[in-house]
Write a structure and sequence with these properties.
Shape: globular
Low-confidence stretches: none
Mean pLDDT: 94
Radius of gyration: 17 Å
Number of strands: 7
Structural class: alpha/beta
Number of helices: 7
Distance between the termini: 33 Å
Strand order of the largest sheet: 3-2-1-4-5-6-7
Strand content: 15-25%
Order of helices and strands: EHEHEHEHEHEHHE
């Protein structure tokens, strides 16, 4: 499969990208804003699998020109994307009364609008049975426990969850499947920002493996689903 993953420079995205190249069956384009961190990803990936077909591109899903990304895909993927994993995101931890409007704008741009732009740019390259996997959060999952300081982040993730359900219907005629994993805690830098001092029982590499496995097989069983992936709260 030809797989694109955003937010691949750290956390669960970094680990998912490594998991995807282990078998040697898939080609991976890893996207993130930090070229230095992407270079580290490539180094580790080729250490694990010297023949891994993994390509890295420093790319900002909000501000950069998608024409450049589409050309990169044409050069390395023969213009076909089987799986798109929308994992990029940021988090602001701040009490609601102290949040500025720009904080909400940043959350919506990074955790929602950027993914909208990515999907719109990629959908024409996806074949029948293509799979779009949005990485949501238990913070935006309806009925889940919510936490102070995370209202802007949680609201942006809730928007991504609803988009997933809408796109599954809109892309049905193209036979492209769309699902969302509302992930709970995994030991990452973002978790430390949200819950300083908390230690998750789930390691980043474990959640990364789950995401990678779901991206490859989940479309056989699900479409339009927002699936909670959490063993603890947070």
């Amino acid at each position: 499969m030809n797989i694109i993953i955003t937010g691949a420079s750290s956390g669960v995205g970094f680990e998912a990208a490594l998991e995807l190249i282990l078998s040697g069956k898939h080609k991976v384009i890893a996207l993130a804003r930090s070229q230095d961190k992407l270079e580290r990803l490539l180094e580790i990936a080729h250490g694990l699998n010297p023949t891994a077909e993994i390509y890295a591109l420093a790319f900002d899903i909000i501000h950069d020109d998608y024409t450049d990304l589409q050309q990169f895909i044409k050069n390395n993927f023969d213009n076909r994307v089987d799986v798109l994993i929308n994992n990029a995101g940021v988090l602001i931890n701040k009490p609601f009364v102290k949040l500025k409007e720009l904080d909400f704008v940043e959350m919506l741009q990074s955790n929602f609008i950027g993914h909208v732009r990515m999907i719109q740019a990629m959908v024409s390259l996806m074949p029948v049975n293509g799979h779009i996997v949005n990485i949501g959060s238990m913070g935006g999952y309806q009925g889940s426990v919510k936490f102070p300081g995370l209202s802007a982040y949680s609201a942006s993730k809730a928007a991504l969850h609803t988009l997933t359900e809408c796109l599954a219907l809109e892309l049905n005629d193209l036979e492209i499947k769309v699902n969302c994993l509302a992930i709970g805690s995994a030991q990452t830098e973002m978790l430390e920002t949200a819950f300083p001092g908390y230690q998750s029982p789930v390691m980043a590499f474990e959640m990364g493996k789950y995401i990678a496995d779901f991206a490859i097989t989940g479309h056989r069983f699900y479409n339009g689903k927002v699936l909670p992936v959490a063993s603890t709260t947070p």
